[in-house]
């Protein structure tokens, strides 16, 4: 059988000049697995279409639609009706989001719609990307653009976040262990013993409450740790080993599946 041609994929990071704020332009035919991000995502679909799973069920996004995701919210993404779709997206960590909104909004904001028809917000996002692409260096213009986009998303599509539902004690204990030391090796038997349940009970309960299996969650936490190490100046090979991956190749595959970009390009974009 002939080798299967991988789907087209291109991700271009844009230097924002601001810690805690990332901007990426993506054109991809990839099916992104279920995953989450540590911060907020606010973007716009430019061409093609996408179907994705969200907390509200399956949603579809088409050209001009704004796409949004909350910190820790599980989602995936696959092309819909064409081989490739393209989008531009901003990622803001929690501290940056809070700094942008200040006391004008509740301390915790939840975006209620993963997809929205909002031409004004889409235009604000596009304007920011055009500024970065064109080498815009005026900090006042950039700060105003980011603030306007963030406030528009929060005011028109956000609500005060409700307290997170309490996880079962077993899942909470297992998740806390994975959060605390994702770089350390662990087995399902060890997690189940820590949680005080059988391996099957933990696997089933974790997948039901978190949205992914313990291993998939662990890989995400390792990728998140590697991302922070890269931002701190570590080389990809160092970040891979320090975050628990067997080698740089394993990190690269996981990093690209989650963020759509390789660790090397991500680090280079940070300057």
Describe what you observe in this structure.
- There is one protein chain.
- The chain is an alpha+beta fold and 271 residues long.
- It has two domains: 9-160, Regulatory protein AraC (Jelly Rolls), CATH 2.60.120; 169-269, Homeodomain-like (Arc Repressor Mutant, subunit A, Orthogonal Bundle).
- The protein is 44% helix and 23% strand.
- It contains ten helices and twelve strands.
- The strands form three sheets. The chain has a six-stranded antiparallel β-sheet, sandwiched between helices.
- β1 (9-14) and β2 (21-28) form a beta hairpin.
- α2 (119-133) packs antiparallel against α3.
- The longest helix is centred in the middle third of the chain and has 19 residues, at 139-157.
- The protein is globular.
- The model has no long low-confidence stretch (mean pLDDT 88).
Could you give the topology of this structure?
Blueprint lengths: L8 E6 L6 E8 L3 E4 L4 E8 L2 E5 L2 E5 L4 E4 L5 E5 L5 E8 L1 H8 L7 E3 L3 E2 L2 H15 L5 H19 E3 L8 H12 L7 H8 L3 H12 L3 H18 L4 H7 L5 H12 L3 H7 L2
Antiparallel strand pairs: 1-2, 2-9, 3-8, 4-7, 4-9, 5-6, 5-8, 7-11, 10-12
Helix pairs in contact: 2-3, 4-5, 4-6, 4-7, 5-6, 7-8, 7-9, 8-9
Strand order of the largest sheet: 1-2-9-4-7-11
Which fold name fills CATH's third level, the topology of the largest domain?
A: Jelly Rolls
Tell me the overall shape. globular
Number of helices: 10
Order of helices and strands: EEEEEEEEEHEEHHEHHHHHHH
Estimated helix fraction = 40-55%
Q: Assign the CATH architecture of the largest domain.
A: Sandwich
Strand percentage lies at 15-25%
What number is the mean pLDDT? 88
Question: In terms of structural class, how would the helical and strand content be classed?
Answer: alpha+beta
Q: What multimeric state do the chains show? A: single chain
CA(first)-CA(last) distance: 43 Å
Question: Uncertain segments of ≥5 residues (pLDDT<50)?
Answer: none
Integer-rounded radius of gyration: 19 Å
CATH superfamily of the largest domain: Regulatory protein AraC
């Amino acid at each position: 059988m002939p080798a299967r041609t991988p789907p087209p994929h291109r991700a271009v990071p844009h230097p924002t000049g601001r810690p805690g704020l990332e901007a990426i332009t993506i054109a991809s035919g990839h099916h992104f697995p279920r995953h989450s991000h540590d911060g907020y995502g606010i973007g716009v679909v430019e061409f093609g279409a996408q179907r994705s799973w969200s907390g509200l069920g399956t949603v579809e996004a088409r050209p001009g639609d704004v796409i949004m995701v909350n910190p820790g919210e599980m989602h995936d993404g696959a092309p819909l009706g064409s081989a490739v779709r393209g989008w531009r997206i901003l990622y803001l960590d929690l501290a940056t989001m809070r700094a942008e909104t200040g006391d004008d909004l509740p301390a915790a904001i939840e975006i209620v719609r993963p997809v929205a028809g909002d031409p004004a917000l889409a235009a604000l996002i596009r304007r920011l990307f055009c500024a970065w692409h064109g080498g815009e260096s005026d900090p006042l213009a950039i700060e105003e653009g980011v603030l306007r986009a963030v406030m528009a998303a929060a005011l028109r599509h956000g609500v005060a976040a409700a307290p997170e539902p309490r996880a079962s004690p077993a899942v909470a204990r297992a998740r806390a262990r994975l959060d605390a030391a994702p770089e350390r090796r662990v087995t399902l038997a060890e997690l189940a013993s820590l949680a005080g349940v059988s391996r099957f009970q933990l696997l089933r309960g974790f997948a039901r409450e978190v949205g992914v299996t313990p291993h998939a969650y662990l890989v995400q936490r390792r990728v998140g740790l590697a991302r922070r190490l890269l931002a701190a100046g570590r080389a990809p090979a160092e970040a891979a080993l320090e975050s628990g991956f067997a080698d740089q190749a394993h990190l690269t595959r996981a990093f690209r599946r989650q963020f759509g970009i390789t660790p090397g390009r991500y680090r280079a974009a940070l300057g």
